[in-house]
Each structure stands twice: as structure tokens, then as C-alpha cells.
Amino acid sequence: MSLLEAFILGLIQGISEFLPISSSGHLSIAGRLMGMDPEADSLLSFNILLHVATLAAVFIVYRKDIWEMIKAFFSMCGDLFTGKGLKLKEYTYRRLIVMLIIATIPATVAAFLFGDIIENPALWQIGTFLIITAVLLFISEKLAGGNTQLEKMSYKQALGTGCFQALGTLPGISRSGSTIVGGLFCKLDKKTAVRFSFLMSIPAILGALLLDVKDMMSTNTALPGILPVFVGMITAAVSGYLSIKFLLRLVEKSKLSYFSYYCIAAGVFAIVLNFTI
């Protein structure tokens, strides 16, 4: 893998992981356009490291929330061992941890159900799902959302948003786009929908990483080289951080539908490409 290819893939991962245009779909399309084997072990391991880099971007942007959840987790464990109970009603971040677990369940089930499509999608499937993403983004403009903030969020709303994240496991359907739409559908306010969406990405990405790393270790997969890995990861982390900041501003202005036009064009392109290569 050349440095230019590593830079391009890192940039695509960082931008498309958080903007509502589907990272898995774009990485698959880009890899095939550059003549890469989508099932090559070295490419799969490289993509794993790119996900680690974008996860780092989430940790940077939401470092305060993550730090509070870490403290809440250990204090909750301490109370459980001393028989004091979970005390979820009294502590917001303890409730948030439980809600993130609940929201992750539908995506975990979907990953097992749609495993073959997720691991090796055809271009026409990616294109179709990109067009579905466009429809979801159009719908988001019609949803006013609600006024529920994170402190008042219910477990039912967490589960509902998690069901939309299950859609995001399909290559071509944006995880961030589907979960933000899901949050608005479940009457979260816009800032909370985006905040919860990105916090949901932490267990989702970590879970996928654990499975991929397990497969990589069992097959003794080689990496494409230290320098390409470094370039790709730095590019993914920086572009991911900027993408999160950019999306936060767009959601406040209700401009997500702009991405729907792009997703339609990208979807049609992928479908056409499926029958020409």
C-alpha cells in the first residue's frame, strides 16, 4: 500500500465515519476503484486501525462525558459490591452507561443476522443502502424532534435509537445518520440526538474491533507497513475530529438533507460500477 492510498483511505474513513454518508460503503467503493481486494487480510487489518483512529476522535470531542462515565462505572461497581445498589435514578452517567448498553443490543443482533452482507457486500447492495440513507436524511428534515435532553432520556428512547443503529450495520447505511434520525424520531432534542449518537459509536466500534482483531490474530494477518499505517491513522483521526465538529453545526441548522443528494449520487454510482467492473 502506497502512502497516497493510505492517506486517501484514512481521509475517507475519518470523514465518512461521522458524516451521514457511510464509512463502510465508501471504503469498499474506494478500495475497489484503487484495485484493492476487499477481502485481502492486509486491507482488513488496515481498516481496523483506521477505526481505532476515528474512535480516538470521539474520545477527544466527548472526553468530559467519557471521563464521567468511567468514574460512574467504578463508583457503580463499588456500590454493587457494598450492597448499595445501582442508584440509576440518582446518577445521570450511571443511567447513561445502562442506556448505551441497551442501545447496543439491536446492532449486536443485526451483526449476527446480516454477517455475510456486512463482511463482503456487493457494490449494488452498497449503492442500494446509500439510497436508503438518503431517504432517512430526507425524513430527518421533516422531524422536529422533541425536547428530551440526556438527563431525562428514557430506556425506551435508548432502545428505539438503538434499533436505528441496527440499520447502520448494513454497508451503505450511515450509522451516524440512522442514529440521529432515530433519536429525533424518539423525541430527543437535536443536540442530545447527536451526542447520544456519537456516544453510541463507542461500544459499537469497540465491539466490531474486538471481533476483527480476534480474526486478525487467528490468521496472523500482516499489516501493510508502519509508515502507511501511521499516515492513515493520523489522517483518519484528524479528519474524524473535524467531521464531528462540522456535523454538530449542521444538525443545529437542520442541514442534514444536503447529504441526501450526495448519497443518492454515490448510490447510483456504486450500482453502475457494480455492472461495469
Question: Would you write up a description of this structure?
Answer:
The longest helix has 29 residues. The model has no long low-confidence stretch (mean pLDDT 82). The chain is globular and about 60 Å long. Helix 7 packs antiparallel against helix 12. The protein has 277 residues and is mainly alpha-helical. The protein has one domain. The chain contains 12 helices and no strands.
Write the topology of this structure:
Blueprint: H1 3-18, H2 23-33, H3 41-61, H4 63-81, H5 92-113, H6 115-119, H7 123-142, H8 155-167, H9 175-185, H10 190-218, H11 226-252, H12 257-274
Helix pairs in contact: 1-2, 1-3, 1-11, 3-10, 3-11, 4-5, 5-8, 5-10, 7-9, 7-12, 8-9, 9-10
- N-C termini distance: 21 Å
Fraction of helical residues = over 70%
- The chain-level structural class is mainly alpha
Oligomer: single chain
- Coarse shape: globular
Strand content: under 5%
Average pLDDT for all residues: 82
How many structural domains in the coordinates?
1
What's the gyration radius in Å?
A: 19 Å
Largest sheet: none
Distinct helical segment count? 12
Unreliable residue stretches? none
Question: Topology as H/E string?
Answer: HHHHHHHHHHHH
The total of beta strands comes to: 0
